[in-house]
Design a protein that fits this description.
By secondary structure, the chain is an alpha/beta fold. Helices cover 37% and strands 14% of the residues. The chain has one domain: Amidase signature (AS) enzymes, CATH 3.90.1300. β12 and β13 form a beta hairpin. The longest helix is centred in the last third of the chain and has 24 residues, at 355-378.
Length: 498
């Protein structure tokens, strides 16, 4: 018998609406799964058990009274520990905020609660989300659900692991250099980077900076669309939120949910293993070639092609560093002992750049963006691997080399994701089976400017096409093995960065 926590978000939401499943029963199933497997992976780092149970009882009563129910009514949701949750510890993975308990939710969390979502707890993240290896000195490391000795990537690593193991049907995430897409690829779940402003963020340090976004994570495309419909809104505090289509402002969830039906046979596909320059591991190239061979016949035409992203590494490094300086320079100066190696490295890097560097980076970003527009005039969809390597041990803070090639920075291995970030185009990571090492492989699907509903529809069509293919459908970790595994907290190097 399938446990409620292993069902899709849409399945359990429909059962709740039909009075066939109690929100209380669903929550208890999720909490039982947390108790069973979280010690092995450390994905859920702060539970809000008492409040969640009280909210689930209220949700059950509302169902029995026949009240109108929100999109997420009764669904447990994991919230990344970069997002404030009223009454629940929010640390940002930093010892500076080890005991911080916010008085109010941030806007995204408030919208999730307003749609009926039940915050079950916080999911682990690297310190301040800096780095794609989910480790910090507050909660320690998060292990990959397919091998707890290996990285789950990041920075939304805790959310990805929680989803893969059934701790929650939905989780929030955020993405600058691929922080939604990278852990989705490593953990066999779905991560969606929306167009900037679609999910408002009132706390973005540089209000007009399109690099960081908030977005949904789920086990499949329809579930991600459900959560996106609750997250998307307008918020005057976010200067980019005006880009949202007016229909969503009026509260019409059909803009994203249910997911659109799309015939891939009418579309032009482009595919690239590396954008012509990303340091992509041979094993990943081989896995990608296998997927391209399976996917290409579904489209009207398919060709190897990619936009010109020359200069993209330098541009992303500079633009990213500017945001880091605003957010963390003062902390590094006043509390250096409480800042980890990634924070120090980012601040030091940022201080080396000049206004000339900033101007050059912005010009390069604009050139790459305009090149994307020309590219998508000739192609409808672009697919690439979501990440350049197969998961490695989490004790390795970052990959210093890939197939013998030295990486430029501690985040250069995320290049396949951050080239897309520079342009603001929407992108989704779709799980597609395992690589030759038995670890999940994620396919990045990139759509045209503003094409959020379109790119999600493409992902849904591909997901449906390979749902019955054991080699290319979403992989599932061995939960019995995780339940029997020793706690990750006992592993050497678990806490901190040593």
């Amino acid at each position: 018998m399938t446990e409620p926590c292993d069902m899709t978000a849409l399945e359990v939401r429909r059962l709740i609406g039909r009075k066939a499943l109690s929100p209380v029963e669903l929550l208890e199933s999720c909490l039982a799964r947390v108790a069973a497997v979280n010690p092995a992976v450390n994905a859920m780092v702060a539970l809000d058990t008492d409040r969640a149970r009280a909210t689930a009882r209220e949700a059950e009563a509302a169902v029995m009274r026949g009240e109108a129910l929100g999109l997420l009514h009764g669904l447990p949701v994991g919230i990344k520990d970069l997002d404030e949750t009223a009454g629940l510890r929010t640390t940002y993975g930093s010892p500076i905020f080890r005991d911080f308990v916010p008085e109010q939710d941030n806007g995204m969390v408030a919208r999730i609660r307003a749609a009926g979502g039940i915050v079950i707890g916080k999911t682990n993240t690297p310190e301040w989300g800096l780095g794609a290896n989910t480790r910090n000195s507050v909660y320690g490391a998060t292990g990959n659900p397919f091998d707890p000795e290996k990285s789950c990537a990041g920075s939304s690593g805790g959310s990805a692991v929680a989803l893969a193991t059934g701790m929650a049907p939905l989780c929030s995430g955020s993405d600058t250099g691929g922080s939604l897409r990278n852990p989705a690829a490593f953990c066999g779940i779905l991560g969606y980077r929306p167009s900037p402003g679609l999910v408002p963020s009132e706390k973005r340090a540089h209000g007009w900076n399109p690099l960081p976004v908030l977005g949904p994570m789920a086990r499949n495309v329809p579930d991600a669309c459900l959560l996106l419909s609750a997250m998307a809104s307008d918020d005057a505090r976010d200067p980019l939120a005006y880009t949202l289509h007016a229909r969503a402002v009026r509260g019409e969830p059909a803009l994203f949910h249910p997911v659109r039906k799309l015939d891939l046979a009418g579309l032009r596909l482009a595919h690239s293993p590396d954008f012509g320059q990303a340091p992509t591991e041979r094993l990943i190239r081989d896995a990608f070639a296998t997927r391209v061979a399976a996917i290409a016949p579904l489209f009207r035409e398919a060709e190897a092609a990619h936009p010109d992203v020359s200069g993209g590494d330098e541009a992303f490094e500079v633009l990213r560093a500017a945001g880091v300086l605003t957010s963390h320079l003062e902390r590094v100066r006043t509390r250096p002992q409480d800042c980890g190696p990634n924070v120090h490295a980012n601040v030091e890097e940022g201080l080396r750049y000049s206004l000339e560097d900033q101007a050059r980076a912005s010009a390069t970003q604009t050139r790459i963006y305009r090149g994307f527009q020309e590219f998508f005039a000739r192609h409808d969809v672009l697919i690439t691997p979501a990440i350049t390597i197969s998961p490695r041990p989490w004790r390795e803070l970052y990959p210093a080399e890939i197939d013998g090639q030295q990486t430029r920075t501690y985040f250069h291995w995320l290049a396949l994701a951050y080239y897309v970030t520079l342009t603001g185009h929407p992108a989704v990571c779709l799980p597609m089976g395992l690589d030759a090492r038995g670890m999940p492989f994620g396919l990045q699907i990139v759509g045209p400017r503003g094409g959020d509903a379109f790119v999600l529809a493409v992902a849904a069509a591909l997901e449906e096409a390979f749902a019955a293919d054991p080699a290319l459908c979403r992989p599932v970790p061995d939960l019995a093995r995780l339940q029997a595994a020793p706690p990750i907290s006992g592993m050497e190097g678990f806490l901190g960065f040593g």
